[in-house]
Amino acid sequence: MSIYSFKGHIPVIHESSFVHPQAAVTGNVIIGKDCYIGPGAAIRGDWGEIILEDGVNVQENCTVHMFPGKSIVLKKGAHVGHGAIIHGANLGRNCLIGMNSVIMDDAEIGAESIIGALAFVKAETKIPRRSLVVGNPAKIIKKVSDEMIAWKTAGTKLYQQLPADCHNSLEEVEPMRTIPENRPKQEDFYETLKEFKGEN
């Protein structure tokens, strides 16, 4: 893992969490249980504290940082999609931050809210609990339904299982040059949002 101390601050990472070797975690960072940090992610606690509560995932190529003097919390079960940037913002419990979205300083994302892919949430924006947010600049378009949050929670549970799976099976290997006849099939165990009824 690429774990770095900074001015005496050494990251604290629970042993059940998984930080990919190609991710970087620096300085005043605390990572709770069953968290997943994907390759290319940068969590940089050089100018303030970053806390990831239990079950948070920060996926590939995400950035978590802030202006000097800010400290932020990604609360339990927060789900940060591929390529998103969290800059000095606090994320509520069990929220979803869509792919390539940007959440700016002092923004507050309410619990169980869903921020759509490519959304831009301006600094100091306060998003109430269970809001569905899209666009640039981001706007609340409706409340998150029970069905939508059930879908989100199920997806996050996969990421909460992923650290253990990575500890147990991820290893660096040389590639095969031909496809073997007995190549294993992967499970199909998660419904997409379109398969949930009543969400148009």
TrEMBL record:
Q: Name one Pfam family in it.
A: Hexapep
The record's listing under InterPro entries reads:
Hexapep, Transf_Hexapept/Carb_Anhydrase, Trimer_LpxA-like_sf
Query: What CDD domains is this protein classified in?
Result: LbH_paaY_like (cd04745)
Against PANTHER family, the record matches this protein to: DYNACTIN SUBUNIT P25 (PTHR13061), GAMMA CARBONIC ANHYDRASE-LIKE 1, MITOCHONDRIAL-RELATED (PTHR13061:SF29)
What is the protein name given in its UniProt record?
Phenylacetic acid degradation protein
**The organism of origin for this protein:** Psychroflexus sediminis
